[in-house]
TrEMBL record:
SUPFAM superfamilies: Homeodomain-like (SSF46689). Residues 64-93 are annotated as: Disordered. It holds the Pfam family DUF433. Residues 79-93 have a biased composition (Basic and acidic residues). This is DUF433 domain-containing protein. InterPro entries: DUF433, Homeodomain-like_sf, WH-like_DNA-bd_sf.
Amino acid sequence: MSRVQRGIVHDLHDEPHLDGRRITVRFIKTQVEDRGLDPETVSERYTLDVADVYRALTYYHDHPKEMDDVEQQRQSAIDSHDHLTTDPDDVRR
């Protein structure tokens, strides 16, 4: 199946993602490098051209400072909202 190749853009929450999709560069990196999925598997699961998976991985590694900043912003947002979440151990029946 032929799929449209996409570029990397920054118009979604200031995090680089595939143009026209909500799939972030960081998400693709996590799927391939942290979870150990093959780029072809990621391509099939998310209906992407395999070149887009490699493009996202290349972008991630070509922009280490930007990706570190993205991760720090994400962690900061998580930390600032942590008090709004409930730990399952805190819920009583």
